[in-house]
Amino acid sequence: MDSRRHNKEYAISARSTGATASMPWKIRPYIAIARPDHWVKNVFMGLGVLLAYFYHPELLRVRSILQIIWAVATTCLLTSSNYVLNEILDAPSDQKHPIKRSRPIPSGQVNVALAYGEWLLLGIIGLVMAAAVNWQFLASSVFLLIMGVIYNVRPVRSKDLPYVDVLSESINNPIRLLLGWYSLTQNEVPPLSLMLSYWMIGAFLMTAKRFAEYRSMGNLKSLVDYRPSFRFYNEQKLLISMFFYTTCFAIFLGVFIVRWHLELILFVPFVAGFISMYLHIAFKKESAAQHPEKLYREKGLMTCMVVSLVVFVMLMLVDIPAIYTLLSVPKSQVAPLWKFF
Description:
- By secondary structure, the chain is mainly alpha-helical.
- It is 64% helix and 1% strand.
- It starts with a helix and ends with a strand.
- Strands 1-2 form a two-stranded antiparallel sheet.
- The protein has two domains: 27-188, UbiA prenyltransferase (Tetracycline Repressor, domain 2), CATH 1.10.357.140; 191-336, no CATH class.
- It has 14 helices and two strands; from the N terminus they run ααααααααβααααααβ.
């Protein structure tokens, strides 16, 4: 990462627009590159919190609410650290994007050296806060930051590699599950089947985003300049990979349901409806799937998501013996989870 080269390039851009006299010391652009509007993605921690309560009902107390708030705030700082790094290293390609060229760094509103400082500061504060929770939460936090480096920084820069880009970005889903889980408990690992399922549904969502981008931009050269992995992608490959990730998601979710709580089989039609509706949105012109943080504007999708969440929580809390009899499946006793020595 050559901060001097970035800084020189965008300082020139800023001077050409007359921005150097006012923008470098203003806070607003530096807040923008931390993407606080993307903090909504940390809602994926919720499944980890719910699972912790499911396995350890005794954790349901007032004090745990404060722990969760602290954990969410910590995760927001950590993800913002990754977002700042992403903004810095994506700036050259963002200049070739019709919309992203107006972001703070490519438009010359940010001093890149200060942006690198912001990246480090957010990461350090986040890790200090994570250490106050427990070492498992800290380890998960370090994992999150490492994936941010792998995703953005050369020589790996996984975001430029077809398929690897999706998998390395969507792995943040199970990491957030771990952060939610370890915000309340420790010494145990949540079910691997559910973490893999969470990873695969994230891969489906990220592929749908690329599919929407591909259909929206149209010009292949512009797509490749913006995201090199598009040199390999096309509509057919993206559709096939979405089918692959959805299938993996369903299989791993099925393993979790049969192994841990068969009542959740009634949840399957709801999650299938959500996936179908999301795919429908991805096909729309100027699809909101290109900007997941703005999906709240899709009222039908949000309604489906809320209903699915309510159904999931209700089914986690009830026993329906008739389902086990009907499907000839023995009832799980929720055996002890994997533990740390």
